[in-house]
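Dig into my protein:

:::
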Amino acid sequence: MISRISGKVIEKGVNYLILDTGCICYEVFIPAMVMERIHESIDASGRISLVTFHYLQVEPSKTFPVLVGFINEIERDFFEIFITVSGIGPKAALKALNKPISLIARAIDEGDLTFLKSLPGIGEQRAKEIVAKLQNKVGKFALMQDDKTAVSSEKDTDIVEEALAVLMQLEYKKAEAMDMIKRALKVVPDIQSAEELLNVVYKQRKIK
């Protein structure tokens, strides 16, 4: 069982890295949620160390080993618990996990089927099965601070920072304000200004 791998990145694809470990080159598949931050873990010489999930892919005519890579053990732990859901194997999980783990875990805990259905390959029934299997079991993953990059990449940082500054002036705590902003961006992802963002935040507060 291969649990970790270190090597020089000699090729980077949409969902994989090829690492030269010195004598052998390994193909390591990377979930999209990890790939978005992978550059942070590659050093100046192009080397990286990954925690891995190693399994055998069984197909009608062949069986072959597959490595899935993660930046840390918490990410791998979430992957392992996610594939305990009936009908979700490692291959499906690789495709589905394209958003920050903290957001996925929060959606599971809150029973947010709309969010879960937005994950590639996850339909209505599968989303219900995920909630039934994992709700109240993924709290520690919701605490991960892996969604900061997602907010910056999805929405102009200036808009978020301006809205955050206004909310803090209104005496909301920073953590509470960021949570409201993230919820607003999830509902209306194409927001174009801080004023529009704050209007969505206000509407959500009214609904509560």
Observations:
- The first helix runs from residue 32 to 35.
